[in-house]
Amino acid sequence: MLLHSHALRSWSRSHTPLGLAASRQCLANHLGLSPSRRCLATPTKWFTETEKENAKILEAASAKVALFTAAQAPKDDLTVDESIQRAKVQKDIGPLADVYASYLSARKALEDIQPHLSDPDAALRELFALELDDLRQHLDTVIAQLPAHLLPTPETDDLPVMLSINAGVGGSEAALFAEEMARLYTRFAELRSWRVSVLSSTEGPGGRGLRETTMKIEPPAYAADGTDDAGVYGQLRWERGVHRVQRVPQTETQGRVHTSTITVVVMPIFPDGPSAPLVDPKDVKSEVMRARGAGGQHVNKTESAVRLTHIPTGISVSMQDSRSQHQNRAWAWEVLRARLSERKHQQEIEDRRARRRSQVRGADRGDKIRTYNFPQDRLSDHRIGLNVTGLREIMDSDGLDAVIDALRRDFNARRLEAILAGDEDFDE
């Protein structure tokens, strides 16, 4: 048995997973960049079910790491912009390259142990079989690290949002549905300890429902440890667009199903800084006026309403919900900054899409994204062909998680497709 143990230790020392430098060299060889050392070729067999299930992840990681390796290859006469781009690629993909190199090293160890599993000595076969189990567990552990590096959380996920709901086609029924959706998002936020501030709200026809409402939703000041939920924008980003409701209104006497719509606008609020759009006060025209609408003695007697107009873009924001002109001005500035931030963010997204070779599926905010069919107790998300039942639970915010999770899975699948096609990653 001592002889057997010595033989196994000798094999283990010679087949310990490679260190980082050696693993990177193995990676370079695998990608055909250097013949100096034999490295693992494209897998012809799967060593574990986890490896097989993550075949697309591994393929995408290999494609992305190829960009990292190419950025490391020596090249003469680089321009300043090229040098900056190469440095960015190395910084962004470096952690993924290290994990992928460890994966190749783990596979090589598994490949090398295969002949020993048929050793004529039964005791040695048993020892090598135990070693095989450890190597498989190590391989699965390494593979589990790949998705986080390959599909990192978009930088915009943790941003607070400005969420607006506007009643569309359907008159009072649309206003009632807008009020229900405002209640849904408020409840959804409260369950996550997010902070909700209603900035403006306009009643619907006859004082029923909401014609329009705008709310600011922020993460808690102190996030709970261990939470792995996406941030505010990371979850609510999927809600923007036209929502259609089909149901029998309370005022309908003949039981006919009516169709109404609302529009939900979700704008990330970028922090003040170099990455945020700079709003020069000189470019903003500020006006004060008397408030209009229902409101008792206060209305039409004091100039508390505020309208801000960003002259370069023509974006205009009016606010009159507070009796304080100072408060209305502060809220108007918040909404204006959010709209300008959204404008810049959307322009960056369009620029990235124009650079990609493949067309990215997605719904514009003007598209009908979802239908709430109450007679059939069904929610349909038209972007991914999702149909779920239990509409009342969803409207109580208890089932919205499942819809958002499905949209995120589709989003990440499209990110994988883009990487496999040689395109850059995207966050919209």
From TrEMBL:
Gene3D superfamilies xrefs: 3.30.160.20, 3.30.70.1660, 6.10.140.1950
GO biological process: mitochondrial translation
Keywords: Methylation, Protein biosynthesis
Database matches in SUPFAM superfamilies: Release factor (SSF75620)
GO CC annotations, alphabetized: mitochondrion
InterPro entries cross-referenced by the UniProt entry: PCRF (IPR005139), Pep_chain_release_fac_I (IPR000352), Pep_chain_release_fac_I_sf (IPR045853), Prokaryotic/Mito_RF (IPR050057)
Region named Disordered: 347-371
PROSITE patterns: RF_PROK_I
GO molecular function: translation release factor activity
Pfam families: PCRF, RF-1
Family that this chain belongs to: Belongs to the prokaryotic/mitochondrial release factor family.
PANTHER family the UniProt entry points to: LD18447P
Annotated protein name in UniProt: Prokaryotic-type class I peptide chain release factors domain-containing protein
Organism of this sequence: Cutaneotrichosporon spelunceum
Gene: MRF1
